[in-house]
C-alpha cells in the first residue's frame, strides 16, 4: 500500500491491494464501514484506542463528468462492492462534498480513496489529485 496525502482529509491509495485495508503507515489507522453510521461508530472506538493517529475511512470511488455516466460505467463493468467498504460513484464535486461531510460529522478524520475500476484508475487518480483536492482546499479556505 502506498498512501499519498493530498491534504489532511484526503489520501489516495495508489498501489492498492483489495485485501489490505489496515495499511502500515505510521500514525495512520485505516478502517472500513458498510455505511456512514457503522463507520462513525468504528471511528469513535478507534479514536479512543489511537488518540494521536490520523484515522481514515476507506472509500471506493469512481468518478465521471456526470453521475449518470459514472453509474453507467460501474454497472457496465459489473464490479461488486467490496464487503464492509463505503463506495461513492458520481462527480468530483459530489466526492468533495462527501469527504467534507464525513469529516464534519465525525465519521473519520479523512478518507483513503481507492479507484473502483482498474481501467479507469489513472483517470480517477488524476481527477482526485486535481479537481477533488482543489475543491476540498477551496472549502477549507472558505470555512476558515
Account of the 3D structure:
- This protein has one domain.
- About 40% of the residues lie in helices and about 25% in strands.
- Helix 3 (about 90-105) packs across helix 4.
- The protein starts with a strand and ends with a helix.
- With about 140 residues, the protein is an alpha/beta fold.
Topology record:
Layout: E1 3-7, E2 10-13, E3 28-31, H1 36-49, E4 54-63, H2 67-77, E5 86-90, H3 92-104, E6 110-115, H4 121-143
Parallel strand pairs: 2-6, 3-4, 4-5, 4-6
Antiparallel strand pairs: 1-2
Helix pairs in contact: 3-4
Question: How many separate domains make up the residues?
Answer: 1
Radius of gyration: 14 Å
- Distance linking N and C termini: 33 Å
Q: What ranges have pLDDT less than 50 throughout 5 or more consecutive residues?
A: 17-22
Order of helices and strands: EEEHEHEHEH
How large is the count of helical segments? 4
Structural class call reads alpha/beta
Q: Total number of β-strand segments? A: 6
How is the main sheet built? Answer: 6 strands, mixed
Q: What would the principal axes of the Cα set say about the shape?
A: globular
| Fraction of helical residues | 40-55%
Overall mean pLDDT score? 85
- The percentage of residues in β strands lies in 15-25%
Amino acid at each position: 500500500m502506498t498512501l499519498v496525502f493530498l491534504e489532511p482529509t484526503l489520501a489516495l491509495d495508489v498501489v492498492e491491494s483489495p485485501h489490505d485495508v489496515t495499511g502500515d503507515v505510521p500514525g495512520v489507522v485505516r478502517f472500513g464501514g458498510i455505511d456512514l453510521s457503522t463507520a462513525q461508530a468504528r471511528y469513535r472506538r478507534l479514536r479512543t484506542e489511537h488518540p494521536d493517529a490520523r484515522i481514515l475511512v476507506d472509500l471506493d470511488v469512481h468518478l465521471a463528468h456526470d453521475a449518470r455516466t459514472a453509474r453507467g460505467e460501474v454497472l457496465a463493468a459489473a464490479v461488486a462492492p467490496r464487503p464492509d467498504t463505503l463506495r461513492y460513484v458520481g462527480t468530483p464535486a459530489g466526492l468533495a462534498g462527501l469527504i467534507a461531510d464525513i469529516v464534519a460529522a465525525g465519521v473519520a478524520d479523512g478518507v483513503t480513496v481507492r479507484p473502483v475500476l482498474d481501467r479507469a484508475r489513472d483517470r480517477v487518480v488524476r481527477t482526485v489529485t486535481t479537481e477533488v483536492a482543489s475543491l476540498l482546499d477551496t472549502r477549507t479556505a472558505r470555512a476558515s
